[in-house]
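User: quick one, sequence for these tokens?
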């Protein structure tokens, strides 16, 4: 096994950090990246500003590697955009890793060498992995001593459909649907959205970013109408912790979204789970909920309802995933947004991320499955611990010391169906107990009272077709 590399799927922030930690352990990493550059997913949201400053989005071990390459560290207090993150950190880091990062290399399958999911021989645990890779030159096989899947969830946006499947007519309407926050400052963005009736669906940070951006657009193009579709019965927990959010920029985002809604640019429709999107003769769309409520005369839909992991290429690897979140079962109780959704996720490592097939780990955004609260500094800690475990340093793998900021972003990708009252447990519920980790707990923010926040223009969807 010693001669084989540790294969890392994805050259995003967590995959690249994994490579650095694997190297620092004297092992050989091989990062396989489907895109043509480092941070291929991050570059697709280049125009979005992070709510974390530079200090929190650079892996400390990676910074040491970069320091030796003449890299100038960005101002730790500033907040980069996705584009800045890719250009000023991820690409230089990938360049410093040299040929340990391969581009145009899409992982299409992973299995224990010569064994499918069923084969249960004595050598399964010791067997290396066979990684199937699609490249422009054709298919390739790479043998790996261990695999860290850090392929993110960016390619798996949730559909508009309220049952998790595409709504009737969603595929036909796809030219009028964006599954990411659009760039509204560009001429193309203005052309597409200014003066239109835009539906924003979702309640996570991306939805708040979209509401702020559309609120700004409505100031300069007053004919722009925004309808905010929310699956839950209310929005009181959607705007986060405001001043109490230890992620200051994320608190500010919630406040700004709240202000955009309160300013009257946005009509909020709650309890709306989309069943159908029908094209009308005038080219506009009619959205209908499962309860029969409608939103008419829609020009464009911005669906930011969260992401789901691609488990397709893991079909021959033994996984132990939570049936709801699709996150590693041992991690799910720590991140379940229905239990404690404010970013009070405990730092964790290899012991909750390892999979039943020895040497297989899921890390980064993908490790959270469908849970919305992932912070990249959590991912850096994950891969530090995983690299230690692969190298056989179990003491370092088990020692997890990281203070995560508490965040009042109570909610996410439409996972919540509880009443407003029961959802409040998400923010103020006790921290889960964990017996695996050494941690330093961050301060828990107080919950914002639901009544304090509930002053937005809210239209509860009415049953019955109109
Ligand atoms: C708009 C937005 C803003 C965010 N802001 C913050 C923030 O301020 N602070 C914070 O802490 N977190 C933030 N996050 C969350 C998270 O930190 C980022 O999404 C981060 O990019 C996750 O890193 P990752 O490496 O796990 O996954 P990704 O960045 O998604 O990287 C995965 C990589 O894997 C590649 N890939 C995918 N499939 C394959 C395959 N089959 N084979 C090979 N390669 C593959 C992709 O091309 C991609 O390059 C934000 C997320 C979004 C979407």
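Assistant:
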């Amino acid at each position: 096994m010693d001669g084989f590399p540790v294969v890392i799927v994805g050259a995003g922030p967590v995959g690249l950090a994994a490579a650095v930690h694997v190297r620092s352990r004297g092992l050989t990493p091989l990062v396989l990246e489907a895109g043509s550059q480092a941070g291929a997913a991050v570059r697709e949201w280049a125009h979005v500003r992070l709510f974390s400053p530079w200090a929190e989005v650079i892996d400390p071990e990676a910074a040491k590697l970069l320091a030796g390459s003449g890299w100038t560290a960005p101002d730790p207090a500033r907040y980069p955009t996705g584009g800045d993150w890719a250009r000023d950190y991820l690409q230089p880091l990938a360049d410093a890793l040299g040929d340990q990062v391969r581009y145009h290399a899409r992982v299409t399958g992973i299995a224990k060498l010569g064994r499918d999911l069923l084969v249960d021989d004595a050598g399964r645990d010791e067997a290396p992995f066979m990684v199937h890779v699609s490249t422009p030159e054709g298919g390739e096989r790479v043998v790996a001593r261990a695999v860290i899947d850090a392929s993110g969830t960016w390619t798996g946006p949730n559909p508009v459909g309220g049952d998790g499947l595409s709504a009737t007519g969603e595929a036909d309407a796809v030219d009028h649907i964006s599954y990411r926050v659009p760039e509204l400052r560009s001429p193309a963005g203005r052309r597409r959205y200014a003066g239109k009736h835009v539906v924003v669906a979702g309640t996570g940070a991306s939805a708040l970013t979209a509401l702020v951006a559309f609120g700004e657009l409505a100031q300069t193009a007053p004919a722009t109408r925004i309808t905010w579709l929310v699956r839950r019965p209310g929005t009181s927990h959607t705007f986060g912790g405001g001043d109490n959010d230890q992620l200051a920029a994320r608190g500010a985002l919630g406040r700004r979204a709240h202000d955009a809604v309160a300013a009257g640019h946005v009509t909020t429709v709650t309890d709306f789970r989309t069943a159908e999107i029908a094209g009308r003769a005038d080219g506009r769309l009619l959205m209908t909920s499962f309860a029969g409520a409608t939103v008419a005369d829609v020009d464009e839909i911005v669906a930011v309802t969260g992401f789901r992991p691609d488990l397709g290429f893991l079909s021959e690897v033994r996984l132990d995933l939570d049936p709801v979140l699709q996150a590693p079962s041992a991690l799910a109780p720590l991140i379940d947004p229905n239990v404690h959704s404010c970013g009070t996720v405990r730092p964790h490592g290899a012991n909750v991320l390892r999979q039943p097939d020895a040497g297989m780990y899921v890390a980064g955004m993908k490790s959270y499955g469908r849970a919305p609260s992932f912070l990249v500094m959590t991912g850096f800690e994950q891969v530090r611990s995983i690299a230690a475990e692969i190298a056989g340093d179990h003491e370092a793998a088990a020692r997890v010391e990281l203070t995560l900021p508490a965040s009042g972003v109570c909610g996410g990708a439409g996972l919540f169906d509880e009443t407003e009252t029961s959802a409040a447990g998400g923010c103020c519920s006790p921290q889960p107990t964990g017996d695996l980790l050494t941690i330093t707990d961050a301060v828990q923010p107080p919950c914002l009272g639901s009544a304090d926040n509930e002053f937005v223009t809210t239209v509860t969807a009415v049953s019955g077709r109109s």
